[in-house]
Design goal:
The chain folds into three domains: 85 residues, 3-Layer(aba) Sandwich (Rossmann fold); 177 residues, 3-Layer(aba) Sandwich (UDP-N-acetylmuramoyl-L-alanine:D-glutamate ligase), CATH 3.40.1190; 136 residues, Mur ligase, C-terminal domain (Protein-Tyrosine Phosphatase, Chain A). Helices cover 36% and strands 22% of the residues. The protein contains 16 helices and 20 strands. The strands form four sheets. The protein has a six-stranded mixed β-sheet with strand order 8-7-9-6-10-11, sandwiched between helices. Strands 15-16-20-17-18-19 form a six-stranded mixed β-sheet, sandwiched between helices. Strands 3-2-1-4-5 form a five-stranded parallel β-sheet, with helices on both faces. Helix 6 packs across helix 10. It is globular and about 60 Å long.
Length: 422
């Protein structure tokens, strides 16, 4: 039995790969000094808070996430000449075992688009395998082990991980400045996306004549729209998910389905039964406030769209936006874009930066950014712990206020752990 030890195993993508490896018959373990993964716990996969030298020495392979590139655990494995694969290499190897790989790349929307494609294939009876960078609301899982025909996966561009994939269908939802701590320039980033497209047999990177009209929301905020193909009506869809940006994700999923000759009635059924992905404009319970939304938005464009959606869906109500920046370097690199968004937000609150792989010296902290925003928006405040944030929210806002938590860090987990949300 092959032994695989994952460095940074609790990452959303790494945890899915670890579980898939276990289900394929491997002996799996790993280490992570961050937030423990519930999906790994449910699969009885052992996670060490500090890497175990003995387990690394005994492992046949070491798989590491990009966040662990400079970690002492990787240095230890290299020193002892272990067989080492990056997360991207390992994902590429798994994907190569499938007949048709459908990989979704892009700066925004790839998680939801990937989940939508998987849902359509499931409803079409294709029994696809799924590797997802998020948890499906349906079952709180980020993987599904199906047949060897279809492999549906997110294609993350960070550290060029997506270039290890050779997709049958490669989707590029959009390309904006992102991960410049690795790419250095936007031109380099765009060149990598072009390589990804060259690696794909079929490329979908525009709407190919498909459009959506009559976009609205039902009484629960659910998204309603009608799809057209060059002016010809295809279907009217009433979805459970809310944000208008999901219309674009649905169009990309629709185009993939049509390349695979899936009928429109199956696509419509899949769309209307789609429950979404956790922390993608997810409405959660809270005893203090009637409406609390958790959204993974961590790029300025994503945050702008989330705030826009909240203002549209909850028109006339006060929107309180609480942002936890994800990495110091992203805040610094995209400072102008972040500034433009938060200088106009009605009530911007900031929680301490989620550092991921970084140190504060790598960029700009949430505290510094909040101080700058406060000069032009007096409603801005910074918080470095949950208790102070909770007390401020309860004391200063009515139960009818809408709380919008945005960011890709650990704040949603902190809110759950402290029973602020359910």
């Amino acid at each position: 039995m092959k032994k695989i030890y994952f460095l940074g195993i609790c990452g959303i993508s790494m945890s899915a790969l670890a579980i898939m490896a276990k289900k394929e018959g491997c002996l799996v373990g790993g280490c992570d000094d961050g937030q423990m993964s519930e999906v790994l716990q449910k699969e009885n996969i052992c996670v060490d808070k500090k890497f175990d030298e003995k387990k690394i020495l005994q492992a046949d392979e070491i798989v590491y996430s990009s966040a662990m590139r400079k970690h002492e655990s990787l240095s230890f494995a290299q020193k002892h000449h272990k067989k080492i694969l990056s997360r991207g290499e390992f994902l590429g190897r798994i994907a190569s075992e499938y007949d048709r790989v459908i990989a979704v790349a892009g700066s925004h929307g790839k998680t939801t688009t990937t989940a939508l494609i998987f849902q359509i294939l499931q409803f079409a009876g294709k029994n696809p395998t799924l590797h997802l960078g998020g948890l499906r609301c349906e079952n709180c899982k980020n993987f599904y082990l199906g047949d060897k025909d279809f492999f549906v996966t997110e294609a993350c561009e960070y550290c060029d991980n997506f270039l290890f994939l050779m997709p049958y269908i490669g989707v590029v939802t959009n390309v904006e400045k992102e991960h410049l701590d690795y790419f250095k320039t936007f031109e380099n980033q765009k060149k990598s996306f072009e390589k990804f497209k060259r690696n794909s047999r079929i490329v979908i990177d525009d709407f190919e004549g498909i459009s959506a009209k009559n976009i609205s929301h039902d009484k629960n905020g659910g998204l309603i729209f009608t799809l057209y193909n060059k002016g010809k009506k295809l279907m009217k869809v009433n979805m459970r998910i809310c944000e208008d940006v999901n219309v674009k994700n649905c169009i990309y999923a629709y185009l993939v389905a049509k390349k695979l000759e899936i009928p429109d009635n199956i696509i419509k059924l899949a769309f209307e039964n789609f429950q979404g992905v956790k922390t993608r404009f997810e409405r959660v319970g809270c005893e203090y406030f009637e409406t609390v939304i958790c959204d993974y938005a961590h790029h300025p464009t994503e945050i702008k769209n989330a705030v826009k959606s909240a203002n549209k869906i909850f028109k006339g109500r006060q929107i309180v936006t609480i942002f936890q920046p994800h990495t110091y370097s992203r805040t610094k690199t995209l400072f102008n874009e972040f500034f433009e968004v938060f200088s106009k937000v009605q009530t911007p609150l900031f929680y301490k930066t989620y550092p991921a792989r970084e140190n504060e010296s790598d960029g700009m902290s949430a505290k510094t950014f909040a101080e700058i925003i406060k000069k032009c928006n007096k409603n801005a405040h910074y918080f470095d712990n949950f208790a102070s944030l909770r007390d401020f929210l309860i004391e200063n806002f009515s139960k009818d206020s809408v709380l919008l938590f945005v960011g890709a860090g650990d704040l949603p987990s902190i809110l759950h752990k402290n029973h602020f949300i359910s």
